[in-house]
Each structure stands twice: as structure tokens, then as C-alpha cells.
Amino acid sequence: MNTGQLSLISLAATALLAITPIAALAEADNNNVDPLEPVNRTIYAFNDTLDRYFFRPVAKGYNFVLPQPVRNGVGNFFDHWTYPVTIVNGFLQGKFRQGTEDTVRFVFNTTFGLLGFFDPATKGGLTKHTEDFGLTFARWGIPQGPYVVIPVLGPYTARSGIGILGNIQVNPVIQIDNSSARTKLIIAWFIESRAALIGPDEMVQDAYDPYMFVRDAYLQNRDYLLNGSPEDDDFFEEDFEDF
Q1: Range with the lowest mean pLDDT among 15-19, 38-42, 110-114?
Q2: Are 108 and 124 in contact (CB under 8 A)?
Q3: Which of 7, 13, 54, 61 is the most buried (most CB within 10 A)?
Q4: How many other CB atoms are found less than 10 A from the CB of residue 102?
């Protein structure tokens, strides 16, 4: 395992080890999904300041320099090369038909989509899915645990946060052996992901309590991904997925 992988794993593991002792307490009180709220709000404020003065300006510059078709291609590229996380977890959840279709989708977009810069699979009727180890753990019966905000990484639950460790191991972008190429791709991936939220992120800043807005949006989206929702599916899937 290389230095880059160890750094990412250490970051996630350190934050999660800090919340593990109270996971049982949070599960015991189903009415309190956020027993760490004072600490979470402090970390959220740090993340928000970092975003306002660094990440968001960089993302706006990215959007200004690159035309929309190029940004779409870059977004497709990273969605494609991180898709094995969805494929693996589909199979682990026993969704063999979905996993097979997702594998076909990945091969189709790799070849006919020019390494994933285009998405002909969707136009061909192959639906895009979202799966990760956090959702797999949920289907295996592992409790959600408390809501937690991790420095820089943002909102998670104990379950989805621990799932990061599994996601890392099957994410081709993070598994690249060449450290220089891997670092450049991860930085580009992060900038593209943040740039895609320019516009929708104004909903957060306009909210009466931005912290609560993000928390509720994240938890509702995770519930939608796991169980579906009686609400408007597109609203949850498109607007809240990246939050």
C-alpha cells in the first residue's frame, strides 16, 4: 500500500475512532441522530470557512476557464472511473442483475465512451446506480451510528464513514501506482466535484441554519439511496447526492 492510500485511510480512521465509543449511545436513542452536534458544528464551521475562502473560489475559477462541454466530459470521466465502487457493492448486496448491468455499463463507456469522457451507456438504456460500502454495511444489518462531520471530508454517519475504507480499496483513481498521476487526478476530481455544486450550494448559504440543512439533506439522501423515498426522487438524487 502506498503513501497516498495510507494518508487517506489514516485520515478517515482517525476521525472514526474518535466517534466509535459513542456509536452505541446514538443507536440507543433513535430520536437523537446527532449527539455530537457541538463538535460537529465546530468542524462544520472550519470546513465552511475553508470552502468559502479556498475551495469555492478555485471551483469558480475552474468553471470560468473550462466551457461546459469540457466540464461535462471531466465529470463523466471521474464518475466512470469511480464506478467500480458501485459495481462491487452491488454484487456484495446480492444485486447480481444490477451488478452485471453496471459491469456492462462500465465496459461500454470505457470503449464507446472514450475512456468514460462520454456516457453512451445511459442513452442506450443502462441506468446509472449509486452504491458504496456504507450502503452495503446497512444491508448487512450494521447500525448507522451517529452523524459526524469529518474535517475537509464533510458529513457522514459512523457507518458510511467506515465505508470510506472499503471504497478506497476498490476505487481505481486512488489505486493508481504512479503517485504523481494519482495526486493530480485526485486534485482534479476534488475540484470538479466542488465545481459541480456551484449554484446548488447557494441553497445551503440561504438556509436559516446551514449546518442543519446539510445534516438533514445528507441523512435524507442516505435514506433515499437505501430505502427509496416517497418524496421527489430527482430532488434527492440530483441535488443532495454530492452534499
Answers
A1: 15-19
A2: yes
A3: 13
A4: 25
Which residues are registered as beta bridge partners of 156? 148
Place of cell 441554519: 209
Residue located via cell numbers 468514460: 116
Q: What is the largest CA-CA distance in the chain?
A: 50
Q: Please report, in angstroms and rounded to a whole number, the separation of the first and last CA atoms in the chain.
A: 29
pLDDT of residue 241: 52
Portion of the chain with pLDDT greater than 90, in percent = 74
Q: Per the structure block, which three cell numbers stand in for 5?
A: 492510500
Q: Cell 463507456 sits at which residue?
A: 109
> Three-state DSSP class for 21?
helix
> What is the DSSP pairing of strand 147-150 with strand 154-157?
antiparallel
141 backbone φψ class: left, alpha, beta (φ>0; ψ -120 to 50): left
